[in-house]
Specification:
mainly alpha
Length: 227
């Protein structure tokens, strides 16, 4: 690794810390002892607020998300189309062989009488559609994909990223999801969109559209296993 490209540079930390804090909360939700009497579903609210706060704290360091890097109308349109397509594919790829085990932190926002708990649902939608897309795209695509291309990732033009970096980062992305085949499709779609446009916002928008539509679909169908 080049001496001038530390693995834990301030830019790398700004993209990694929100992600790892998010994953720590996810682990806490999944392995919280039941005898503590705590409702792990509400931990998602804290998770959303803390990660959003970290993103806000580091925001000035995310040059790729600066106003001048917003996508043009056509690029935004493509991002929306990609997000819709990934959602449509995602909900079809849930056969047993397409899954890596089962989720450790289930999220079923129903009370004891089977009624929807709307505060929980709103928190989940905000986290999934607004916070997670920014946090994940900063980590998986802005950082990891470009870091695999070259440790000095800040100097890597996303349009110059090779297929090796795309495949490796997508593979790691897949390991963080239960529906592995759906994650492959999503990871490749967002990565290729980022490389095509050179703008991280397009991947963020596509990811947000996918997650937003998935959330609406889950609520309307009661397919909570997708959450």
């Amino acid at each position: 690794m080049p001496a001038d490209s530390p693995a834990l540079s301030p830019a790398a930390l700004a993209r990694c810390i929100p992600f790892f804090v998010f994953m720590a909360f996810l682990a806490l939700r999944g392995y919280l002892p039941a005898d503590l009497g705590l409702d792990s579903r509400w931990i998602y609210g804290a998770q959303t607020l803390v990660v959003a706060g970290l993103l806000a704290y580091y925001w000035k360091g995310y040059g790729e998300l600066a106003r001048q890097n917003l996508p043009e109308a056509r690029e935004t349109g493509w991002a929306v189309v990609v997000g819709i397509a990934v959602f449509a594919i995602w909900v079809q790829l849930d056969a047993p062989w397409m899954q890596l085990g089962s989720a450790t932190a289930s999220f079923v926002p129903l009370d004891a009488d089977g009624r929807l708990i709307w505060p929980l649902i709103v928190l989940r939608l905000i986290g999934a559609a607004l916070v997670v897309p920014v946090m994940e795209e900063l980590f998986w695509r802005s950082f990891l994909m470009r870091w695999v291309q070259h440790p000095g990732f800040e100097r890597v033009d996303p349009q110059a990223v090779g297929m090796k970096a795309i495949v490796i980062s997508t593979f790691v992305f897949t390991l963080a999801h239960t529906l592995w085949l759906a994650a492959v499709v999503a990871g490749l779609a967002y990565a290729l969109l980022y490389r095509k446009t050179g703008k991280l916002w397009t991947a963020v928008i596509a990811h947000a559209v996918t997650n937003g539509l998935l959330g609406i679909w889950v609520i309307s169908t009661g397919r909570w296993e997708f959450w």
